Amino acid sequence: MFNKDLLIWCREPQFKRWYIEKTPLPDIINKEEEYKVEEVQNHRKQGWKTQFLVHWKGYGNKHNQWIAGMGSPHTKKVIKDYWTKLSRQNL
Known about the structure:
The chain is of the alpha+beta class. It has one domain: CATH 2.40.50.40. It is 19% helix and 30% strand. The chain has 1 helix and 5 strands, in the order βββββα.
């Protein structure tokens, strides 16, 4: 049973900024959340490590992150694709 007096009316958002971005749920692999990298957008040297600016699949640009260590097979392929794309631009 629920008290109907506690309910409030809801209306459609009138402005674009009112919309809540729907983000996909991560895959659960070995009881850990795993997000998929859609593309690598940039790279930089941080000390002796290379960091990559990654764009997560299903998320907006505000969720992009600089990531140093990426070891999943899918991520390695995305990094390889990034280096291939970068080398073609420098020709």
